[in-house]
Amino acid sequence: TDNIKVREGTLEIRPALQTIPVTAEEMDGLRSDIAGNPFLNEKIVSNDGRATAIYIPIRKKDMSYRIGQEVEAIVTRELLPGQRYYLAGLPIAEDTFGYEMFKQMAVAAPMAGLGIMLLLYLTLRKLGFVFIPMMDAMFSIIWAMGALIGMGYPVHIMSSMIPIFLMPIAILNDVHILSEFADRYPVIRDKRKTLLAVMEELYIPSFLAPLTTAVGFASLALTDIPPVKVFGLFTAFGIAVAWLFSMTIVPATIMLTREERFLKAFSRTRGHLWQMRILKTIGEFSWTRSRAVVAGFIALLLLGIYGISLLQVNDNPVRWFKEGHPLRQADAMMNELFGGTYMAYLIVEGDEPEVIKQPQVMAYMDRLQQHLEGDPLVGKTSSVADIVKRINFVLHDEDPVYDAVPQDRDAIGQMLFLFQTSGDPDDLDNFLDIDGRKANIWVQMKGGDNRQMTQVEERAASFMKVSPPPDGITIQWSGLTYINKVWQMIMVEGMLYAVLDSFLLVFILIALQLRSLVGGILAMLPITISIVVSYGLLGLAGKEYDMPIAVCSALALGLGDDLAIHFFHRMQHLYRISGSLEEANRLFFQEPALASFRMTAVIAVGFSPLLLSSLTPYVTVGTFFATLMIVAAAVTLLLLPAATRFLGHRYLKKEG
Measuring CA to CA, which residue among 515, 389, 313 is closest to residue 39? Predict the structure, then answer.
């Protein structure tokens, strides 16, 4: 950041603003110094002179938010009227997201809980039945997050979503049990007999559904991505806690409730006749129009596959904030005024000391920088070659011919010696190591998307392919923007394999449970179609595949298989009773389907508060919850009955 110039035949390296200009001539001189120095123009001061930048190096990214708050306090106190300030950069964006993540969780999770409680009350019509599932969700979240933090794991963006994932999954069994109890009690009118009848019918699916879900999440531990491992294992642990609660506390709470309260609560016909009429219509339609239903879902699946083909992998932590957020505004403004807020580094390394000071190496770095700056995305590049060029330029009376790297190694060494002795010796450490073996090229970019980083990376690679580095020289990328791009690639690939592994494990478990390969394949349809359609809609909407969306792929494992398992076990039971596939289908679309209908409504609508979050990952998760549940429920209530009409005899047995 020092200005390099010659005064009275002596090289002078000093800050450009040692004293405040008081005359027009001094101000013109300062403007001239800044405009003529590539280290200052569009890096420290904008080209139009309207803005100046302060670069704050930090040791660790998790210091960014605290430092940013301290800077804001100072700037707010010292700003003059009409002046504004902006804070930008990937470190502060990522650390601020971590801070706001907890704030949003403190608001979004309770709002989601309230939404679920309201819908549970509207569907179950008993206040006590509302608190039981919410206690289950609360206990599973506290145990999972408490174990995670207690074992010393940091709360990453993925693990921060464990409460959002656990809340709907934890209450699935509770909703089934309580819904079935509420429907049967008016007929049996004895809480113990009603509970025994409900648990006898629901115990197996209520055990198998969370088992397959927990195994699916636990299999994420097979990935090579530590945050994904932690997320998968502790989510699986939370699911196990929720199952234990639903199998013990829920029945115990029912038995501790006085019989009179049940008689009073369920003395009248419960207000779900309109739901039953809808379900009856759906059941008849799926059976009588089974071919049309199957054809419709095949078309929907093909549309989803087409949409997925349009998805592009891309991410940028700054875009985790909504439009209008101060960080988004600061990012746009500072990238307009300066060389760029997204930093990446090219590490040039030689095989022996002092090799960087060789003219051919220094000149190669200069040519590489010029090639990179030909990309509009690259605002500025800086390296030790720029320092040498600047000294050579000013020592020769700013003759443009000498705005180049000297061809003499000794001359380069002398210039660097002059720079260290005349200015701050630590400045050179940013670009060159102490033994001259490694050099650092700063690449400032005006965009930090993964695809933009890849574009700049490919531009450098194409240059090095046509013009290879000197012998013994290797060049590698580094920096937070590059690391984010690599992380995203690893994340996408890792989550893809993790979800496929989980998918396979869940399929094997369900096929073994049903003792039928055909049944196992059909049971995976809600998961498969909900994932394909959800991602396909994202592709059709022009949404990019980023980290939050990659995380959501695991969400279907916890929702789709629950509906399918309950469908097949209830259909098996009803088929044995009736002896007819059509009659079993008719009976299913009474109380059994009502529980699935309620659960879908509770989860899909109950998580709408997430759509109000200022953080786009939470908006994405909320949208996925609704989409996945609606699609999975549609597959369960439409496609599976239609498929059962054709294939039911292959996997349903009249005796067992």
Answer: 389
CATH code for the domain in which residue 504 is found: 1.20.1640.10
Is 239:169 a contact under the CB 8 Å cutoff? Answer: yes
pTM of the predicted model as reported, rounded to 2 decimal places: 0.80
What mean pLDDT comes out for the span 285-312? 93
Task: Assess whether 196 and 292 both reside in one domain.
Answer: yes
- For 310-324, give one letter per residue: b (16+ CB within 10 A) or e: ebebbbbbbbbbeee
- Residues 433 and 543 grouped into a single domain: no
> So what's the pLDDT on residue 654?
60
Positive or negative CA dihedral for 318, 319, 320, 324?
Answer: positive
CATH of the domain at 370: 3.30.70
Q: What is the pLDDT of residues 372-391, one digit of tens each?
A: 999 999 999 999 999 999 98
Where does a domain end: 463, 478, 493? 478
**Does residue 460 sit in the same domain as residue 497?**
no
CB distance 162 to 275 below 8 Å = no
Q: Quick one: what percent of the chain has pLDDT higher than 90? A: 36
- Both structure tokens of 641: 């009955």
Residue 337 maps to a domain: no
Region 88-112: what's the mean pLDDT?
83
What average pLDDT does the segment 399-426 reach?
A: 85
Residue 72 lies inside a defined structural domain of this protein: no
Pick the closest to residue 2 from 607, 619, 525, 420 (CA basis).
Answer: 420
351 is in which domain, residue-wise?
342-445+448-478
Question: How many CB atoms neighbour CB 614 within 10 A?
Answer: 15
Domains of the chain: total: 3
Residues contacting residue 529 through CB under 8 Å, at least 6 positions apart = 297, 300, 301, 304, 631, 632, 635, 639
* Residue 62 placed within a domain: no
Choose among 497, 485, 545, 531: nearest CA to 313.
Answer: 545
CB neighbourhood size of 544 (10 A):
17
Q: Which region among 283-292, 487-496, 524-533 has the lowest average model confidence (pLDDT)?
A: 487-496
What was the pLDDT predicted at 186? 86
Structure-token pair, residue 109: 């999770």
Residues 490 and 466 in one domain: no
Residue 430 has pLDDT above 80, yes or no: yes
Residues 509 and 644 both lie in one domain = yes
- 14: its two tokens: 């000093």
Based on the domain organization, do 315 and 357 belong to the same domain?
Answer: no
Q: Quote the pLDDT of residue 497.
A: 77
Would residue 89 be called left, alpha or beta, if left means φ above 0 and alpha means ψ between -120 and 50 degrees? left
Instruction: Indicate whether 391 belongs to any domain.
Output: yes
Q: Which token pair is 333?
A: 């403004």
